[in-house]
Amino acid sequence: MTMAAPDIKAAIGQYLAAVASGEASKVAALYADDATLEDPVGSEPHRGRAAIEAFYGGLQGEISTELLTARVAGLEAAFLFRVVTKAGDATYTIEPIDVMTFNDAGQITSMRAFWAPEDMTAA
Amino acid sequence: MTMAAPDIKAAIGQYLAAVASGEASKVAALYADDATLEDPVGSEPHRGRAAIEAFYGGLQGEISTELLTARVAGLEAAFLFRVVTKAGDATYTIEPIDVMTFNDAGQITSMRAFWAPEDMTAA
Question: Where's the SnoaL-like domain (chains A, B) (predicted)?
Answer without folding.
Answer: 14-110
